[in-house]
Every structure is written in C-alpha cells, then in structure tokens.
Amino acid sequence: MKITEVRVYVVETKAMRPVIAEVMTDEGYTGAGEASVGFGTGCYAAAAMIYELAGAHLIGKNPENINAVWSEFYYGTFWGKGAGVIFYSAVSALEQALWDIKGKVLGVPVYQLLGGVCNTELKVYANGWSEGVCETAQDFARRAEKVAEDGYDAMKLYPLSIVDPVRHLNVHHIGRNLSKETIEKSVLAVKETRRAVGDDIDIMVDVTAEGAPSDMIKIANAAAAYNPVWYEEATDPFDIDAMLQIRKSVSVPLAAGERLYTRYGFKRLMEKRLVDIVQPDPGTCGGLMEAFRIASMAEAYQIKFAPHNCGGPVLTAVAIQLAACTGNFFILEIFPYEPELHYEIVNHAFEKEVCHGRLTVPKLPGLGVELVHSVIHPFLVYTVK
User: Mean pLDDT in runs of 10 for the chain (385 residues)?
Assistant: First the structure.
C-alpha cells in the first residue's frame, strides 16, 4: 500500500479554524488528522507546512510504517530537532491520519493498536464558554450556571479575560505586569464562578501565561480558596526557572504543556516535577504516538495526563483514542459551544455525544470519524500527488 495523495483544508468556522490533513492510498483507504493551531495565528502556515512535508516525505510511502515516517520528519528535515508549533502541528496532522488508516485497515480503533482500552468512559470538561463574553464577574457566574445546567460537572475559565473581553484574541504578552485591579478582578471571576456552580463542580483556571511570575503567584494563591482542580499555564513553560519559582510559591495543582513539542520538550518539566497535570496536545506535540509517549513518561513521574484538545472534531477523536488507552488519564477537554459548522466537518462529532459530562469510548475503526466532503471541500487549500 502506498500514499498517493494528500489534501489540506483550513475550515473557516467563524470561531476556530481547524487545519485538516486527508491522506489517500492506492488501496482506497483514507485517513484524517488535524493540526491544533486553529485558535491562534498560524493555521495557513501550518497548512503550507503539511503540503511541503507531504510532498517531500510522504507521497509514495507505506502509510502503515508510521514510526519510520515520523523519524524521517524528525531526522530528515533538519528542522525537526528543536522545531516549534508550525512544524509539529503539520507533523501531528499527518501522523494522526496514518494511524487512522492503519486502524481502518485492521478494522480496530487506534487505541487497540496502543495496548487496548484502560478507560471505557471519559470525564470531560467544557471549554469555550467564558472567552469573549464575560465583562464582569457576574457574567462569568451566569455563563457558568448555564454550563452546569447543560450537564457538565467540570469546566475551564479564563479569569484574565474579564479585564478585556478580546484579550485572548489579540494580547499575549509574556511577562506583562498586571495591575492590582486586574488581579483582583481575575480572582473575583473565580470566586463568582465557584459561588454560581457550587462545590460539586470542578473548575479549572487558565491564565495562559499572560503575566509575570509574581503576578501569577498572587492570582494562584488567592484563587486557591475556591478549590480549582488546577492552575494552567502559569508562565512560559520554556522558562524552567520561572516554573520552579511558581511551583515553590503556590499550593494549587499546576498544569501545563500545550506550548511544548515532542517528548524531548517535556523532559525537564517532568524531571523537575514542575507540574501535577501534563497537557500535551496531539495536534501540536508531534502526533498521537508522541502524546502517548509523553503520557507514559508522565506516568513514571506520577503525573496525571489531561490531553490538551483545543480544536475541531477530528482532534477530539484523536484525544479520545489517547484517553482510552492511558492509565494516568485524568480528564478530557472539549469545546461544546462552537458554531454548527465546526462539528459538521465529520459525520458524527463526539462533542455532540457527551451525556452528563461523560463520553463513552467508541469502538469504531481508526479514529472513529469520517470527513464530510460536501462541507470541507470549499476550504481545500492544497493538494499533493
């Protein structure tokens, strides 16, 4: 079996912009993968990188030799070592598609190829409900109540967005000095969310590395009174010394990983035990197997695994495969409040199958979803043969 064609789509959903790779073979099998850069700058750059990698390193190859293909990306491109989000989001999308093909060829879910199921039901948390809509702490409370009413018993919020509702769309200044008022308003947002949903709902606090370590410490220590499950992206994860400073100064569990790539990028984070929950994104960290390896490394350090999943329904399908077969899986991120087009990319989006905050692990072959061409065809940007 050989790869004959790769198509690349950037689906403009008016929210996220999922970057989809579709890999085709001479035996009629096709696979899909998604690059997790659709919520920030870089989706068209990632699409171009998929196009270039596929043309130079994928066409004509056997799609079942996934490790060999990944090694060629890493060793044969020069930039594989030490590369960043654009390179590894492209690698991730292509690698996921190869797993999808292999699962379909063998007639089994991908998690069966990684050792079988550990978890048949997955706890999820809702994201995407607090950004761009909450201008006061009371706004957070009202929105949080709606999420709880929808059946979710876990949710993530971005308290710094209370200061500027569009902050998360256009302001990401690492080391930014936050005012006393900003810090107080952020903590109030956490407090009001907790008051609104009660003590039985899990809340995760994400500050997206938007302040100096001293400011992030202040927010974490004040927010600790409201029992967050974790405090996410407290600082730039590449700054190990800053991560250590925060680790020594706060009592809340720390989570990070969405901005790190490959097992090599996560090594120091784990060796120094700087986080309690590790969050590799299979759409940017190097793919499905690389996320699995990172989760396995984390297990050796007694660190929980919560795959970062900020993308479309293909990426959710990938994250479900990982969550199903990892012993240290903790909780899965989903975005249930996106425009309908976001979910129409595939034949059945698993985000729509959540019941009482839980997802049943599917038994479908491959990733368990199929692309809907009538929806995605207008968003085709590259074809490689």
Answer: 98 93 98 91 96 97 97 92 94 98 98 98 96 81 96 95 52 61 93 97 94 94 98 93 96 96 95 97 97 98 97 97 98 96 97 97 98 98 98
Q: What was the pLDDT predicted at 163?
A: 60
Strand 304-305 with 277-278, pairing: parallel
> Would you tell me how many other CB atoms lie within 10 Å of the CB of residue 120?
9
- Show the tokens assigned to 124: 């999820």
CA neighbours closer than 13 Å in the CB half-sphere of residue 214: 5
Angle between helices 66-75 and 288-300 (to 10 degrees): 90
**Beta bridge pairs of residue 155:** 126, 203
CA distance to 55, 110, 246, per residue, from 44 (Å): 17, 28, 35
- Beta bridge partner(s), residue 347: none
Look at residues 20, 22, 19, 17 and name the one whose alpha carbon lies nearest to residue 6: 22
Taking the C-alpha atoms of residue 134 and residue 173, their distance in angstroms, rounded to an integer, is 20
Cα 52 from Cα 6, distance rounded (Å): 11
Alpha helices by DSSP H, listed for the chain, are: 43-57, 66-75, 85-106, 110-113, 137-149, 167-170, 180-197, 213-223, 240-249, 262-271, 288-300, 313-325, 340-343, 373-376
Task: Quote the CA–CA distance of 279 and 79 in Å, as a whole number.
Answer: 24
Beginning with the edge strand found earlier in the chain, give each strand of the sheet holding 3-10 in spatial order: 30-35, 19-25, 3-10, 380-384
- Are the CB atoms for 16 and 312 separated by under 8 Å? yes
Please state, in angstroms and rounded to a whole number, the distance separating the CA atoms of residues 185 and 167.
14
Q: Which amino acid is at 94?
A: L
- 25-28: long-range contacts at Cβ-Cβ below 8 A with a sequence spacing of 24 or more? 25/1, 25/63, 25/101, 26/1, 26/2, 27/1
Say if CB 331 and CB 123 are below 8 A apart. yes
SS3 for 212-273, per residue? Answer: CHHHHHHHHHHHHHHCCCEEECCCCCCCHHHHHHHHHHCCCCEEECCCCCHHHHHHHHHHCC
